[in-house]
Design a protein that fits this description.
The chain has 305 residues and is an alpha/beta fold. It has eleven helices and eleven strands. It has a single domain, classed as TIM Barrel, CATH 3.20.20.100. Helix 7 links the parallel strand 10 and strand 11. The radius of gyration is 18 Å and the shape is globular. The structure holds NADP nicotinamide-adenine-dinucleotide phosphate (NAP). The site of NADP nicotinamide-adenine-dinucleotide phosphate (NAP) has 29 residues, from helix 10. This is Aldo/keto reductase. Keywords: Oxidoreductase. It comes from Microbacterium rhizosphaerae.
């Protein structure tokens, strides 16, 4: 697919059948609905804990994802363990510029060189965070940058800086993450938002997040949930299944419970994308094949109850 073919009118986001769940658009960029979250590439458990993962194995996971039709990779400069960094491995996995790959990154949170979390970035620190991502990913322009928000206050000062960096050409498209509906409106008034990345999953449906999802659907932009499989365990990673409906549907279909959670995510609307995180090749292949699961109305009712 050429660069020209994958650029679509953002008002007419394209959903197609095809590998990795068909496609949707992030602004002018078309991506597979089944994407990949790079947070688990650097260390097996949460990105701050656990032994560093094998670099060659993590790069092989990224390349296999691409082979399976995944074109949407979610990352951040703060996804690193003592020995590995997600951005560096994405850069190494795809050394030649591949126009079909869209790399989305986030700014706002910060970690020092030892991995300790620092306070969320002030507006004057955002350019440095964007440039850090450019250096690590080996790019002159970032496809998509999310402002990862903390708290419920105004985000205008921070988002305004990213809008300027977009005008300067360092960023192609903007998103917001961990936002309320009011914060989405505020960002929208400053510059176009192509995607919202919030916590959402089968057991993680707050009224506020449902309202944000509804708003993204109304505006025809992407909604990208995080922790769709990890659920309540969040950063600690996926643990034993706690939802009997998930277990029942998985057993009846002969697939894994993680696959049911991912497939449920993609059933929430054509603009809802998935970015499952794994450093495990077998899990990656299961995750991509979850995009082929088509639930019956009865199954969806049981899962969504
Ligand atoms: N915007 C934000 O604030 C924010 C916050 C957190 C994450 N994120 C993004 O969202 C992405 C997804 O979140 P996440 O990685 O934390 O959680 P997730 O995708 O919901 O779940 C990942 C966990 O599930 C396991 N797993 C993956 N595939 C599996 C399978 N087929 N069967 C069983 N277990 C499986 C992983 O372990 P293995 O590695 O062993 O497979 C890991 O423990 C991240 O990678 C990151 O890009 C964004």
């Amino acid at each position: 697919m050429t660069m020209q073919q994958r650029r679509v009118d953002s008002a007419k986001a394209v959903v197609a059948t095809g590998p990795a769940g068909g496609s949707w658009s992030l602004g002018p960029l078309q991506v597979s609905r089944m994407g990949f979250g790079a947070m688990r590439l650097a260390a097996g458990a949460a990105f701050t804990d656990g032994p560093s993962r094998d670099r060659a194995a993590s790069i092989a996971v990224l390349r296999r994802a691409r082979e399976l039709g995944v074109t949407h990779f979610d990352t951040a400069a703060f996804y690193f363990s003592p020995l590995r960094a997600a951005n560096e491995m994405i850069n190494a996995a795809f050394p030649e510029h591949d126009d079909d790959i869209v790399v989305a990154t986030k700014v706002g949170p910060g970690r020092d060189a030892s991995g300790h979390w620092t306070d969320p970035a002030r507006p004057d620190q955002l350019r440095g965070q964007v440039e850090e991502n450019l250096r690590q990913l080996g790019r002159d322009r970032l496809d998509l940058v999310y402002l990862r928000v903390f708290g419920s206050g105004s985000i205008g000062d921070l988002f305004g800086v990213l809008a300027e960096l977009r005008t300067d050409g360092l960023i192609g498209n903007l998103g917001v993450s961990n936002v309320s509906r009011a914060q989405l409106y505020e960002a929208w008034d400053i510059a176009p938002v192509v995607s919202v990345q919030n916590r959402f999953g089968l057991d993680q449906r707050t009224p506020e997040t449902l309202a944000v999802l509804e708003e993204t659907t109304r505006r025809g932009i992407a909604f990208v949930p995080f922790f769709a499989m990890a659920g309540a365990a969040g950063g600690r990673g996926r643990s034993a299944e706690t939802n009997p409906a998930v277990t029942e549907v998985a057993n009846a279909r002969g697939v894994s419970e993680a696959q049911i959670r991912l497939a449920w995510t993609l059933h929430q609307g054509p603009n809802v994308l998935a970015i499952p995180g794994t450093g495990d090749l077998r899990h990656l292949e299961q995750n991509v094949s979850a995009a082929d699961i088509q639930f019956t109305h009865e199954e969806l009712d049981a899962l969504s109850r």
